[in-house]
Design a protein that fits this description.
This protein is mostly beta strands. The chain contains two helices and eleven strands. Strands 1, 2, 6, 9, 10 and 11 form a six-stranded mixed sheet that branches. Strands 3-7-8-5-4 form a five-stranded mixed sheet. The N terminus is likely disordered.
């Protein structure tokens, strides 16, 4: 490994057809929550789910994450995901976004990969992933 490469564990995410990766250092939890139908007697608060007894406030992925937005991917990035097509929830850890979560279409990994500093993407297992960070 050269000094130009950094190694880390990453979680791959599918969002609106794009492939993105976030360092697992930013993630508190990942869980499947496909929103089953609820009865009339159940209290339902939009934008909040409960995970291990704790409320998780959901936001759009583009409100919590940032990436180098170039080309056509910028339009796809800002499309709101429908709950029916985005059953996975990622909860962030530490900092001002702690306890906030967002929905994604699918996950890949986690996997161990090397990245080059100042690069906005990397290649893993036959696919390019845009690197994202926490806003």
């Amino acid at each position: 490994m050269t000094t130009l490469q950094m190694q880390d564990y990453w979680l791959g995410m599918r969002i609106n057809g794009g492939r993105y990766a976030i360092s697992t250092k930013f993630i508190h939890a990942v869980f499947l929550h496909p929103e089953p139908e609820q009865g009339m007697k159940d209290l339902r608060i939009n934008g909040v789910v409960v995970y291990k007894g704790e409320p998780i406030c959901l936001r759009n992925h583009f409100q919590l994450l940032r990436f180098d937005q170039r080309g056509d991917s910028f339009v796809d990035w800002h499309q709101t995901l429908k709950q029916s097509s985005a059953p996975w929830i990622i909860v962030l850890r530490n900092g001002p976004q702690e306890g906030l979560g967002f929905r994604i279409n699918n996950i890949v990994g986690p996997f161990y990969a090397e990245t080059i500093p100042d690069s906005s993407f990397f290649y893993h297992n036959g696919a390019d992933y845009h690197l994202v960070g926490v806003s």
